[in-house]
């Protein structure tokens, strides 16, 4: 049997690697039982696969791993792409880059992520780590635990990802320079952005004082472009003739640039064989900023010819909004960790580990509106028309008239063309004017919204302290015992802010200032032509926009501002054992955790008062005490675990695991905050006041609250795996896993009376003058087609939906994994250097209410084909996953669910390592060219009701030329 966890002794993208026992006990897989270490000398992708294979074989639990050969030499821009190719893992793209990772169908919020065994925080909205935050240059490896062990402090129902950085005294002295040039195949559709980027890194590892003190430092910088096209519609409806048409258009071109600067430093001091001290420092400064430009337009059509989703016709009354939405997403992550290990005797050691992490993020999103003119000031006879063609792939436009202003900055008006200002009702006096709409009514606050500025600030802090005792035992069966206590204190808050924007020209409008204009953005791919591209932040920065704080105007701003606190104490004990019988060898571990938790949240329930303001009845600009909420809960869990590995024949293993795991509820679900929301839309306000009408047409009312008393998601897990290692570089495995979900967060809802809320002591939320509407023109209104005369006062229905989160949902997740790494020289010597690494995962998940597990694809696979000869290497990798549920940033900076369709990605790389070229000066040089998304795969979402594509994201391929030199 083999002993030890393979730690790679290299930094950044260096070429060689070594294997050694880990001294970072937090990520020790406890996988072995004696001191023999198998040294693997092959390099390149074959060496990386062999190292991963050896770690998998030696582990008593079920694991996957990657080495720096994978991370540093692909060369991936982050660890996310490397993780996504592992068996049972699937990547999720965000803005064209792989950012999220699902393990066995569980999104990253339901898996644990650690760095050198310590819990890792990100800069996201929830617990899940954004893996593209971490550059490949600072990592030496990663281990994915699909089954847990009692001394693994970071756990999740899906599993645990432990990222690893170098330990200087275990690594060779090296200096590595890594540079890359990036090129996107698709040019930017926005004139102020490029399709070119670069990466650079400098890293070194050095030992001093007779190898008792070591330093490893990595500096990395990245500027990476992303350009994509986003087709979208509001939805589809079927008319009386059975023709499927969109209800509105929302299509954009998006350009962003990722900028990431990273400093990683590790200091290790081992003055004697008994004492080992390691200090880790990490700083990541991050921004992902850009622009989103496009057309938003309600859709009406005439002269439609065709059937179903296949038709042609004319869009009429086109009064589009040109949305220019700049974005600045910035963040910083700092971590500091200290680990001390002291051997009291040859067999007993103690460890103290302390760490602190902090992250800050601001997600700033501007909105600037432009069009034919201000809402209400353009005669409908001046609206435009478009010719269109519909198909199951969506709608495209073939011609237009009356919309030339969108390509001419001298005609395009910097003003909101649609009446979107209903949220400013409490400021109606500010917008009173003698200026009239074309219908003769005065302009009002409804016509005064010309933009909106969203931003959300996030802060997260995590402090952990662990004390652990480890003893090697001399018994015949039990070989080692580990016991300890771990304390963690987490704080996370969110401040959701927004500002309504109105131009200083209100109630009139002016064209786009010439100094704003960059040029033209290309929407010709959808038949919308070239539109004016201007700086969307400029009117905010130069004072053209008057801004009004939406915090006291929109209840879901305060209702999405909160703090969450958690204190967790974990006591744990684990025993390793081994037993030989009948020419078979059994190793494993058994243990238990006792986890005690105290959690709390403070926030606000946002409600509009009689003065039309949110939680500010006395107009003092402070949140009313009656709106504040402070709730929490205390509870504990007992989490047992068992891992067995039986070698029943030479290099053939049967592994079994049984354990209970928890994943803590999403932060945004645990918030104390909530709100009562009302849609200022006459078609919804005029819905009849009956339960039947609400069921058929919906309601303008909605209420939402978080739940600070949510318990963690909980599962009983069982795993069985057969692994056959038929050569040092080849194996195949079959694994079955079963997860009994005994607690999952349920999305609850109930119908309530918003004039007599039984869930809030009979509260009446209706405010006359705010929640009703005076009819301006005779006509029929709402989906029920009710006729109203000018001057009629329409009051909304009483009923609506209250949404919340609760415990108690149950379900099962089960599946199989097939994995193989086959060097083709086992078939014939002439195929030496060729090989295939492949995996397939099938997941069957069922929650009792029929909802889906976020991140769960029914099927996913990964295939990597490679050839390696001396210094030359070629590889092509394909990953595929079926559709899945996820979530994304929605309206008012809140999280909303989203569905992603199946996606297949193809990447490739060609490289040459000069180590064997016979040129001394080039011995440390390696060059490579790689490409991602080579088949130009789109991401599509299909409307369930009609089968027509409702959204499409097109990213295009990108290429990376890399030069890596180590000496």
Major β-sheet profile: 27 strands, mixed
Taking pLDDT < 50 over at least 5 consecutive residues as the criterion, the unreliable ranges are 1-41, 69-75
On the 0-100 scale, what is the average pLDDT?
89
Radius of gyration: 30 Å
Helical coverage, percent range:
under 10%
Total of DSSP H or I helical runs spanning 4+ residues: 8
Strand content: over 45%
Terminal residue distance? 35 Å
**Overall outline:** globular
The SS-based structural class is: mainly beta
Tell me the number of strands.
Answer: 48
Keywords:
disordered N terminus, five-stranded mixed beta sheet, 8 helices
What is the compact description of this entry?
This protein is mainly beta and 967 residues long.
Task: Tell me what you see in this structure.
The chain is globular. The chain is mainly beta and 967 residues long. The chain starts with 43 loop residues before the first helix and ends with a strand. The longest helix has 15 residues, at 44-58. It is built from 8 helices and 48 strands. Helix content is 5%, strand content 54%. A hairpin with a 7-residue loop joins strand 23 (517-522) and strand 24. Residues 1-41 and 69-75 have low confidence and may be disordered. It has a 27-stranded mixed sheet that branches. A 5-stranded mixed sheet has the order 1-6-7-4-5.
